[in-house]
Amino acid sequence: MTNEAWLVFGLGNPGPKYETTRHNIGQMVIAELAHRIGVNLTRTKLRSNVGTSRLPTGSIPGVPGPRVVLATSTGYMNESGGPVRQLADFYSIDTDRIIAVHDDVDIPYDTIKAKVGGGEGGHNGLRSMTSALGTKNYPRIRAGVGRPLGRQDTADYVLKPFSKDERATLPIFISDIADAVEMYIVEGLEKVQLKYHSK
Length: 199
Prior knowledge:
Elements: E1 6-10, H1 25-37, E2 42-43, E3 48-54, E4 67-73, H2 81-91, E5 98-104, E6 112-116, H3 124-133, E7 139-144, H4 154-158, H5 164-187, H6 189-196
Parallel strand pairs: 1-4, 1-5, 5-7
Antiparallel strand pairs: 2-3, 3-4, 6-7
Helix pairs in contact: 1-5, 2-3, 5-6
């Protein structure tokens, strides 16, 4: 039996070596959401750091919003699918309520896009999720990090920290992505696309 909870999974790599890199912006967004709703992420046997609560944005004043499971993997990006599958099974969450929050080199920095399904664009975390879930039809909140200038390899680029100029606006960008996640859960995909795709 499924329930009405949402799983929001921030893609990234573990440890201090990677925590400030472009590839980890999904995990930064999970940290922001956890801060907003006042939960701490706890390491679990599901190969994930997990926190559960409700959004404070219910449609009726005074009524709690939707229940959310916020999670990041304790393993590496290319192993993301296993933890997502375990969390979905443990919390009985359908695929259409599993939101992947991830970096995207195909859209400019400080740009947010949302979609359901589609390709992985060479993103190993998404590829692992698709394989584990057996479908591509799960929501994605895409955080633009842009492509490297010159001949820098894309794989190296996403594993580097944000530039000085990017770091100046990164907190606002992360807050905006968190807003997009909340909007998706409460108001749906079209509202997110109307607000953020037109920018």
